[in-house]
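Hello Y.,

Per our agreement to keep a running log of every chain we model this quarter, I'm adding this entry. I've kept the format consistent with earlier entries: sequence first, then predicted structure.
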Amino acid sequence: MVMAALVAGCKPKSAPRGTRPPTVECLVKTTPVKDQGESPLCWAYAMLATIESEHLMKGDSVNLSPQYVGRMFLEEQAQRYYLTGGKEPISLRGMGSALLRLIQRYGLTHYDAYHPEANFRVMERKVEKIANMDIGRRLGTEGLRKHVADALDGGIRPLPKFVFMHGAEYTVQEFARSVCMEDEYLAFTSFTHHPFGERFVLESADNYYRDEFMNIPIDKMMHYIDQALRSGHPVCWEGDISEPLFSFPTGVAKMENEREKITQDMRQRAFEQLETTDDHCMELIGIAHTAKGRKYYVCKNSWGTNNPFGGLMYMSENYLRAKTLAVWMSREAIENDKSSYIGF
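Predicted structure for the entry above:
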């Protein structure tokens, strides 16, 4: 296995003339920036990047395969589509929590073993077509699974049966458990239509498994994010990127009025008026400040490296406060915080 490259401590690629990136205060280690292409698998890329950084910060090198997870998700949905008579559409959209469920269920492999160049949107349509044909013939789930597996083997790549790393052999399930334990990550959100201090199923169309999130005030969430990053732990971020000043080409995301601090009420109003939507998922890897003292968060995106910062982005504190739907972080990131809610 090729050892994962480390980003911590290196300088971003040169910005365009006249652009000065914020000064980085802290930065966790990451694997190289990947490109999700035309697939909607940002949630898998971001959550796996978070797991990778957790290991890198502890001296353990891992680089994980989002394509493996995408394929297993397609196979699972094909069966669901068949058994509901085509009433539940096949889609690869999801949230970071879906990744955690999928690797516990189907295992995982490392990036070098499974990173085919495949168009997952095309494969979605192909799997749906196969399922429709098998529904018409009442073929049954065993026949469906074979047809889907054959199509994905040809359209993507056959699956590895074992994972080989550092001289050891693992099944895909053993490997998944070695890189991420069940319940290792905590999920948080911040909305007032449910009580704070309690879990609820976040009302997002992409919450495929109807996962629950601990609801906390936005100030508490920002505190947890800062504490995690400053203590060397990454954070998986899910939120809205539809704002006009979210720009991958410039590598910056900020609100149109950065002088107005986003409040809990402003967040709630935007969510209930459907102005804050579930669009994208990235890994938060650091904190930075401008010369004028404005705070930004360094994000590892999954859209390739073709921007001024080699695929990284700088998101303003106000944007994070306004447009975050959910975050995930390891228990270890906040376990020493005496102000934490009990009973995670």
